[in-house]
């Protein structure tokens, strides 16, 4: 298992820097997620809500899931859209009913939570054939931002983790510093 790299809440302001769009634009995320206005979606490791605020206008309810209550405080200070529900929990312990969610996405957090328990829980809460979008720092990157290279997955490795958990991988891309995987739940 890789070392977990979790953001120190005292440096949360870094999560609001628009340079993040260099690694994943709002339009790329919206396009990959392909949301509808009635969907119930979860942002896995929402942090300060940088991408949460980008996706919220396109879905019915967006659950901003994060382990750190301090991140939720930062999100509220930046402005919480009406359809966003903050959830303080880990991916392995989500407080949702079976098949309650229509889609899920993770932006730069896959390396923090991926293990058998988290992927099984994600499978449990997603309805069958639900979309999952994973964009994370790639082990094939230069390491100019994000966690150390040895704390990252490569694109094929991330896809293999999802496939071994029963997800159907639709696309795998290696990009500037990041990997981009889309999949469907079983």
Give an account of the 3D structure.
This protein is α/β, with parallel strands linked by helices and 186 residues long. The protein has a single domain, classed as 3-Layer(aba) Sandwich (Rossmann fold), CATH 3.40.50. It contains 6 helices and 7 strands, in the order αβαβαββααβαββ. Strands 3-2-1-4-5-7-6 form a 7-stranded mixed beta sheet, with helices on both faces. Helix 3 (69-78) links the parallel strand 2 and strand 3. The chain is globular, with a radius of gyration of 15 Å. The two termini are 24 Å apart.
Largest sheet: 7 strands, mixed
**Mean model confidence by pLDDT:** 91
Helix content: 25-40%
H/E series: HEHEHEEHHEHEE
- Principal-axes geometry comes out as globular
CATH topology: Rossmann fold
For CATH, the homologous superfamily is named as Vaccinia Virus protein VP39
- Tell me the Rg in angstroms: 15 Å
Number of discrete domains: 1
Number of helical segments with 4 or more residues: 6
Distance between the termini: 24 Å
Note the beta-strand portion. Answer: 25-35%
Low-confidence stretches: none
CATH architecture classification name = 3-Layer(aba) Sandwich
| Widest β-sheet, arrangement of strands | 3-2-1-4-5-7-6
CATH class: Alpha Beta
Task: Supply database-style keywords.
7-stranded mixed beta sheet; globular; alpha/beta; Rossmann fold; 186 residues
Summarize the structure.
By secondary structure, this protein is an alpha/beta fold. The chain has 6 helices and 7 strands, in the order αβαβαββααβαββ.
